[in-house]
Structure formats: structure tokens, C-alpha cells
């Protein structure tokens, strides 16, 4: 298994950040197998979605509706409503495993690997890419 950790700047606002290009760079020159992507954070997750056509903003809107940033959360440190960020990984897991064929991700036409980070308290995130040869 080959592995690498990258750092992604997500900033101080909720964000859906496409990391497909970084994953493809990691896979360059590798053969068939599986790419495992893992976000070692309690307040971030991964989604395989279309980006650039509004779906990324729609995802953030849906999360705000499903998990509002209000005072209902028992987990209360950080920004107001931060407790919802700790619930996020139950809905958007912090991992994804994807097929790799001839060193290229076998994603659908409009699919991208996205880091979803609603937590503005932590402006940088780490992502681990691991390649398991087939």
C-alpha cells in the first residue's frame, strides 16, 4: 500500500472543495487498484458529487436545513452551532473508496471527490490518499 497526506486550506466558511485533481496527481503512474480517501477530522466528510453546476452549494444548503447551526446541540465549544459539525460525519462519512483503472479514477462523467467542511473554526484540513494495488 502507498499512502500520502495532503493539506487543504478550507478557510473560515463552510465549503465543498473538489479534491479530484489532487487524487489524480497521487495516482499518476499507478496501475489498477483502489484509492481510499480518508479525512482524519471529527467535523469534515467526503462526498462524491457533481461540482460547478450548483450541486456543491445545494449540498451546503441541504446540510444547513438538516443540521441547523443553532443552539440545539449539546456539544457547545467553538462557534455557535458547532455541535452540528460533529454530527456531520454520520451523514457524510470521512472516507471513500474508489476504483482505479490503469492509474486513473473510474468516476462517472460528472462525479468529483469533494471534501465537505462546514467548520470555519479550522481553516486547514488533512486528507490521506492510500492506493491499494489490485
TrEMBL record:
Q: Which domain of life is it from?
A: Bacteria
The record's comment on protein family reads: Belongs to the UPF0047 family.
What is the protein's name according to its record?
Answer: YjbQ family protein
Amino acid at each position: 500500500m502507498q499512502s500520502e497526506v495532503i493539506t487543504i486550506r478550507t478557510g473560515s466558511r463552510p465549503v465543498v472543495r473538489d479534491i479530484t485533481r489532487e487524487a489524480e496527481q497521487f495516482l499518476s503512474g499507478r496501475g489498477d487498484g483502489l484509492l481510499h480517501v480518508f479525512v482524519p477530522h471529527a467535523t469534515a466528510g467526503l462526498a462524491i458529487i457533481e461540482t460547478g453546476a450548483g450541486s456543491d452549494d445545494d449540498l451546503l444548503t441541504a446540510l444547513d436545513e438538516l443540521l441547523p447551526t443553532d443552539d440545539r446541540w449539546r456539544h457547545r465549544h467553538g462557534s455557535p452551532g458547532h455541535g452540528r459539525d460533529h454530527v456531520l460525519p454520520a451523514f457524510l462519512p470521512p472516507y471513500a473508496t474508489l476504483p482505479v483503472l490503469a492509474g486513473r479514477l473510474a468516476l462517472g462523467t460528472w462525479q468529483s471527490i469533494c471534501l465537505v467542511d462546514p467548520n470555519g473554526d479550522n481553516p486547514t484540513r488533512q486528507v490521506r490518499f492510500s492506493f491499494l494495488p489490485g
